[in-house]
Amino acid sequence: MYSFDFERPTTVADAVAALSKEEAQALGGGQTLIPTLKQRLASPSVLVSLSAIEEIKGVCNDGGVLNIGGGTCHADVAAAAASDFPALAKLAGNIGDPAVRSRGTIGGSLANNDPSACYPSAALGTGATIVTNTREIAADDYFQGMFTTALEEGEIITAVKMPIPEKAAYIKFEQPASRFSLVGVFVTKGADGVRVAVTGASEDGVFRWTEAEVALNGNFDASALDGLSVSGDGMISDLHGSGDYRAHLVAVLTKRAVTEANG
Amino acid sequence: MAEVTMKVNGKTVTKSVKGNTLMVEFLREELRLTGTHVGCDTSQCGACTIHVNGKQVKACTMFAGEADGAEVSTIEGQAAPDGTLNAIQQAFQDHHGLQCGFCTPGMVMAAASLLKDNPKPTEAEVRHHLEGNICRCTGYHNIVKAIMAASGQDVSGIAAE
How many degrees, rounded to 5, is the angle at CA A109 between CA A105 and CA A110? Predict the structure, then answer.
């Protein structure tokens, strides 16, 4: 690791001030960033840990909208969402392993926007609002491609507001070594209709499968997806699976998610 | 350099560390608590598992500065002061839950974390909880058996000795 100064502010305001320094980098739970630093793929001059900022931790249900602090770790989301939003609890409770879930945060995951991370599918699949220190961003505008988001330099995710859908399910086909999603599909049925968000598959990161949404809006049953498929073009192709294989999984997992959402 | 203060196995320590000092380096090199092992150094093997404020973490993937003010438990704090093993450690010995022993500190700390939240886990829950801890000797069966035994459950039907 290159050397850097380490700061650990206790308020969002102090963190924003610290991040205004040249070559400053925010540190969420560090479960991606620390391995990246070890590989010398990042060389910040100042690392600003967000882990001591209590005001961005915790989960509450505000009249049907789950308000999750950006600094809330996966284990705490899994515990807090268990009764109100079990599909989200299942997603959070199966990220990485128990130690990763103790440190990794929802804000860190969404800020990084790994194309195979689980949380982006929940944010896009629920039509969540990403709240930062300066503004609110709709999930549909937030994700802008692999490792790319609408966040500006030094902007911090303080909360994520997720409307709790009437029905929801997340099905992940796990890459067994990393436990990232080879493909993951988050399906919801709510007041504004059906949303199908797919992670792990596309080279552009998380995306909505709108064709499936149209079909499921007509009939929220796995059979409504018969005959629908996505193209393997533009899908991630690596040693774990070809683009065509991932495309195939998208259709299979979407059906499974709809079946699970229907209980 | 910055000063960090934390309570490690009940004892308060204060040290001056560089910003990029990992928690596992702090434990092993500053405090000479070498029971916390570095296996992969890439957050996959779990040999460096410790507890920070009661939560299971990988000490290779956390900075010492992030534990400032925290309560930390390591494998060295698990046995009684007279050396009597705790229930989990004793069960690992009784059920041959280790061979070379390199992964064992992490396995014991992971097991302690599981049993704190879930005192009577099923075999499937034990295996799910151990997903971040890799063992290359045992094939896991006797580790799972030891943890089930430590929880006070009958293990006669689980795997083979």
Answer: 120
What the block records as the tokens of A145 is 């491609």
Structural domain B2-77, CATH architecture: Roll (3.10)
Give the model's pLDDT for residue B160: 55
ipTM: 0.94
Q: Do A6 and B20 touch (CB under 8 A)?
A: yes
A31: closest chain B residue by CA: B61
Mean pLDDT over B62-90 rounds to: 97
Q: Say which amino acid occupies A53.
A: I
Alpha-carbon gap: B131 to the closest alpha carbon of chain A (Å): 6
Number of H helices, E strands in chain B: 5, 5
Cβ distance B39 to B48 under 8 Å? yes
Closest C-alpha to A167, from A191, A185, A184: A191
Residues of A contacting chain B (CB within 8 angstroms): 1-6, 8, 27, 30-31, 34-35, 37-38, 47, 49, 51-52, 73, 75, 96-100, 102-103, 177, 179
pLDDT at A139: 98
| CATH level 2 (architecture), domain B87-150 | Orthogonal Bundle (1.10)
DSSP H or E run through B3: strand B2-8
> Quick one: fold of A5-49?
3.30.43
Question: Which CATH code for domain A54-163?
Answer: 3.30.465.10
Contact check, Cβ <8 Å, A98/B113: yes
Q: Is the model's pLDDT at B161 over the cut of 80?
A: no
Question: Distance, in angstroms, between A167 CA and closest chain B CA?
Answer: 26
